[in-house]
Amino acid sequence: MRSSGGADTVFDAGRSLLCRHIVASVDDEASGPTYSVTALAAGLQVHHVDCAVMAVGRRRPEPGLEIFAQDLTRLPVVNRFVISGALSRALDTAGKQGAVLHSHGLWLMPNIYPARAARRHGVPLVVSPRGMLGPEALAFSRNRKRVIWALGQRRALETAACFHATAWSEVEDIRRAGLAAPVAVIPNGIDIPEGTAETSARTVLHLGRLHPKKGIDRLVAAWARVAERHPDWRLRIVGPSEIGCREALERQVHDLGAPRVDFDGPLFGSEKRAAYRQAGLFVLPTLNENFGMVVAEALATGIPAISTKGAPWQGLETERCGWWVDHGPEPLAAALDAALALPDAERALMGARGRDWMRRDFGWDGIAARMAQVYAWCLGQGERPDCVVTV
């Protein structure tokens, strides 16, 4: 058995594999892990993995989703660490039952509790950093992260029997942090929606959190350079604003005189799907991303996409469904010019290729099957899967 240390645990290969996914919160529907972690857990059920997602927050529990209360204090700074004694105790019980513990994300107490339970009961811990070890991500709230690293995050990561990376670039982040455990390279999956994009759509869409690390200011600067050459197109920026990002972007739009720029708050469900269908092009100008779920969502809807090289979407070029460009307004402006000058039929063909790619390589069933193999291997049940690297 590959375990994280502690007491020996004997696993019966004939029984259903038990796994618990831990993420700080699933309250924010605009957050990528809210979708990807819950969808992965649902997919694993098909592969005979007894799965549940454990989180802290206000969302109502439902089948396969366990929600725990936060231990609130009068100190807002302390509350930001998402301390939950109830979650810690539940993880201890899961470890005692022999569950594989799969932790998603970093820098909060729900990302440290699983390691404690894994060490105590000798069960495997799998950790998905979710892009939070990338240099650009580490640059935000640097001092706070250094404190958490010293207080427990480092030891929690060193407890891992295996890491999960959604792209090869994230393997580099893990190794750069001095972490030597094996890494399973498995992308996120995506559901293929029923409807596809409107062929004549004239909207450039960016959808996701409005945060400085997303590089949206570079998209605005690029749009200001090309907008007059494409007067029938508009730029739509959709998502929840963090740390005053929307206000800063609106000032930038005004200062640059960028025309036809619309801002909307977060969209969910049918409204979010409609936003994709009504777009003719998707742009992700991010500084750093371990996956970039929004690119997969756009491609699954049949929209060509532009992504900076801050996200692992080089397949946009090899699959001929978009552009993978360097950082900065100039490369973005060049890609926008090329994309918006294409005939509708050519953009539609690119979108169709992207949708076929998502269906072929990013279906949840295949991704869940690979993850189940990783769990079994961590338990000493089977050979090392091809997706696991040890260097």
How would you summarize what this structure contains?
The chain has 15 helices and 14 strands. The protein is of the alpha/beta class and 391 residues long. The chain folds into two domains: 17-189 and 363-389, Rossmann fold (3-Layer(aba) Sandwich), CATH 3.40.50.2000; 203-361, Glycogen Phosphorylase B (Rossmann fold), CATH 3.40.50.
What keyword list fits this structure?
Rossmann fold; 41% helix; six-stranded parallel β-sheet; disordered N terminus; 391 residues; 15 helices; 16% strand; alpha/beta; eight-stranded mixed β-sheet
Describe this structure in words.
With 391 residues, the protein is of the alpha/beta class. The protein folds into 2 domains: 17-189 and 363-389, Glycogen Phosphorylase B (Rossmann fold); 203-361, Rossmann fold (3-Layer(aba) Sandwich). The chain has 15 helices and 14 strands. The protein has an 8-stranded mixed β-sheet with strand order 3-2-1-4-5-6-7-14, sandwiched between helices. Helix 8 packs across helix 13 (329-341). The longest helix has 18 residues, at 344-361. It is globular. 47% of the residues are buried. The model is unreliable at 3-14 (pLDDT under 50). InterPro entries: Glyco_trans_4-like_N (IPR028098), Glycosyltransferase_grp1 (IPR050194). Pfam families: Glyco_trans_1_4 (PF13692), Glyco_trans_4_4 (PF13579). Residues 32-189 form the Glycosyltransferase subfamily 4-like N-terminal domain. This is Glycosyl transferase, group 1. GO terms for molecular function: hexosyltransferase activity.
